[in-house]
Specification:
Layout: E1 2-11, E2 14-24, E3 29-33, H1 40-48, E4 55-60, E5 63-64, H2 70-76, E6 78-81, H3 93-100, H4 107-120, H5 122-125, H6 137-149, E7 155-159, H7 167-182, E8 186-191, H8 194-200, E9 203-208, E10 211-217, H9 218-223, H10 225-230
Parallel strand pairs: 3-8, 3-9, 6-7, 7-8
Antiparallel strand pairs: 1-2, 1-4, 4-5, 9-10
């Protein structure tokens, strides 16, 4: 569904992505782990067309999209839930949801998806007429995801969805993402909460200063000593088993 090949992206003279390659298959959740400044947000924004790749190719559903404008990327079926939520605070919850469907013209489908996202996030149903800026942090994150779903995406990009949320809200959020996954949604999930991300994901990459340094199935990365030490807050295993966790296993990644 999505493949990045040797992507380089810059902010002025600073190279934020240094030859990033990754792929994601239909219905799959792929996690991108990394600390602050690793390049996760730049990666998401480059896929969305908000940052232009200097070199490399991004293919989505068989088409090269690295030169597309953001609106065309959304129309093609990619919706992003940005870091920091970035809702429209002065608009009501209902108006924010309508903004998510701005590229669509199928009124019946929009109404059906409006009902669907409120089933996912029943708290929002109670707050449809409230200005979005009056919601709690957790409710704003729910709204940001619901707004992205209103575009009926084929692929959902989630940039640090758990950032700033209390642990109980993080668990609720990941339960909803698991439900979406069970219903066939494909997601690229950039997260610092490696424990939750690896429990949810099928496959994962570790991004370090703009470079992919580890890749493998989520199960294998959970067992990787470096990941356990740096991202899971756990001691290394007494004896590491298995193969090279820093190599992408294409047989595993389908």
């Amino acid at each position: 569904m999505l493949e990045l090949r040797d992507i380089h992206a810059f902010y002025g003279p600073i190279e934020a992505l240094k030859g990033v390659s990754l792929k994601l298959s239909e219905g799959q959740i792929v996690a991108v782990l990394g600390a602050n400044g690793a390049g996760k947000t730049t990666l998401m924004n480059t896929i969305s067309g908000l940052v232009r790749a200097k070199r490399g190719q991004i293919r989505f559903a068989g088409q090269a999209i690295e030169r597309w404008r953001p609106e065309r990327v959304v129309r093609a079926g990619i919706s992003q839930v940005p870091a920091g939520r970035q809702i429209f605070p002065e608009l009501t919850v209902a108006e924010n949801l309508r903004m998510g469907a701005y590229v669509r013209r199928d009124r019946e489908g929009i109404r059906a998806d409006h009902r669907r996202v409120l089933d996912y996030f029943p708290r929002l149903r109670e707050r449809l007429k409230q200005p979005a800026g009056t919601l709690s942090g957790g409710e704003q994150q729910m709204l940001a995801i619901a707004r992205a779903l209103m575009a009926r995406p084929k692929l959902l990009l989630l940039d640090e969805p758990s950032l700033g949320l209390a642990p109980v809200l993080v668990r609720q959020l990941f339960e909803i993402l698991e439900r979406l996954h069970q219903e066939g949604a494909a997601m690229l999930l950039a997260e610092q909460n490696a424990h939750m991300a690896l429990q949810l994901a099928d496959y994962a990459y570790v991004l370090t200063l703009g470079t992919i340094t580890l890749a493998g199935s989520a199960r294998r990365l959970q067992a990787n000593d470096q990941v356990r030490r740096l991202y899971l807050g756990m001691e290394a295993q007494p004896a590491s088993r298995g193969g090279d966790h820093d190599n992408i296993d294409d047989n595993e990644h389908r």
